[in-house]
TrEMBL record, chain A:
Organism: candidate division TA06 bacterium DG_78
Protein name according to UniProt: Uncharacterized protein
Keyword Transmembrane helix: yes
Tree of life domain: Bacteria
Keywords: Membrane, Transmembrane, Transmembrane helix
Membrane-spanning ranges: 7-24, 36-55, 67-85, 92-112, 136-155, 167-187
UniProtKB/TrEMBL annotation, chain B:
Transmembrane helix among keywords: yes
Record has Transmembrane helix as a keyword: yes
DUF6754 domain ranges (all copies): 107-357
Keywords: Membrane, Transmembrane, Transmembrane helix
The name this protein goes by in its record: DUF6754 domain-containing protein
Organism expressing this protein natively: candidate division TA06 bacterium DG_78
Transmembrane segments: 115-133, 334-354
Pfam families reported in the protein's UniProt record: DUF6754
Amino acid sequence: MNLSPEPLVWISAFLTLCIFSFLYRDNILYQFAEHLFVGLSAGYLIAITWHNQIYPNLVIPLFQEGRVIYIIPLAFGLFYFTRFIPKLAFLVRLPIAFLIGWGSGVIIPAVFQRDILRQTQGTLLVREAFEKWDTGLWAIVILVGVITTLIYFFFSRERKGIIKPAANIGIIFLMIGFGASFGYTVMSRISLLIGRMQFLLGDWLGIIR
Amino acid sequence: MNIVFIFLLAVIEPPGKPIVNDRPNDAGRNITIQWALSPQDDEIDGYEIYRSQVDGPFEIVGYVPKGNSSFTDSTQDGIKYCYQIAAVKDGEIVAQSEISEDVTSSGQWFHTGRFNIFIGIIIYSIIVLWFIYQAHLGKKMYIRKISGLDALEEAVGRATEMGKPILYVPGLSSIADIATIASLNILSQVAKKTAEYNTTLLVPNRNPVVYTVAQEVVKEAYTDAGRPDAYNSDNVYFITGQQFAYVAAVCGTMMREKPATNLFLGYFWAESLILAETGASTGAIQIAGTDSVFQLPFFITTCDYTLIGEELYAASAYLSKDPLLMGSLKGQDWGKLIILGILLIASALLLVGFEQILSLFNIS
């Protein structure tokens, strides 16, 4: 065993063990690490927001370059604080409405492009896919999977007639997809645990290299 | 012009006169320059791009290695520029093109390369508006059973009977995320029920803007339910923007407050399993919903009910039975039906050799 002489490594290892102690039960060590983590991250967020957002995107253009138009985003930002003044609290809805409207406007064309046009294009059966029997078969499987999954997500039709078996096939496709995704994601999570164990056993205790 | 000519023994012919254009379909401040390569392209190192404002001196704005015949320059809108291309060998200019025509960069309001997206959104919007209009006229709309949403009433009732709070996590994403907006719509319905049953509703938030909206949503729901006095603003709170610090705090809340019901509705990342596992260990009834494909398997395995993808979007219509939302849902179904039709028809056309159909899906 070759224990680390670095105080920061010891602090880091202690906090890691505090968080791991939650696996047994909620306890004072976990609560200590939890509150420290929340407090530090909240403070860090404020500093990051000031340096990366407010200062370069508002303070410099408005107060140093004199671009008066930036008063509008400043006012919208300040409206968030009107929640603390009951008579003016209604003003908070202005930036919220703006943000939701802007967000929808930006996201809808992007989603349409990414999730509908591109996906539809990728699902179409093309002649080249049938040059080999296996690629042709997979192309048909994908098309059937997309169609039946779409049918599963029909809400305004009762599940009877052709819709019922199609939706049942759709849920089978969904579950196969989720199973594959589950295995893939678990693998990546295990790599996170391995990273932390390497820190504890290597950097801290020096048992492994 | 301050460009010095060095004539070498081997004659290098100049590149063609540059063709300059404002770059189409952008927000401005870009000019594309194209030229014909020097016939002795193999013998030089590359091309330097020179720019001048009208009657002004030329300055170098870029360099491309040999074999390249185009360059995009960053400019200021509204100013006339002209360009010249110089072939360079061993750090010296060996030939120089003619000067281009004048050009000015400008932004465009409309991206012509995405016309198909525009048409698609217009058609889809018309369908949705049509069904909303129909619903407004009083036409009955059917919606199929969604088990996870039927269980919401039971979950709220269980918390009331046990005298324990309900924990509602509106996802960890921003307000610009569709799943977050859907989640806030469901939050409104849940808050109305908790107001009616006088059950405590805890809503921890990661995003400051979502937090503000969530407070407004819950407050309005309590007012709509006729219980504005029961609203406690401390129950809708901001924790931190850091993902795992937020998760640590929510897990702590689950262990200490022991909510009878946990609702995880919105967009989630790697924290989904940690939250749902901790919740399951406390014995709470759990309903989750997300459109994140990678997190759905974790919710399906650890929660009692899971809303899969679009079921989350349909939830607000399902819970409120608001005719306008029902009309919107019907419109969405028709949108899906059109996609299904396009898939089948376009596939059939492609298989008989009508390849032009693919141009409908092209985006530049």
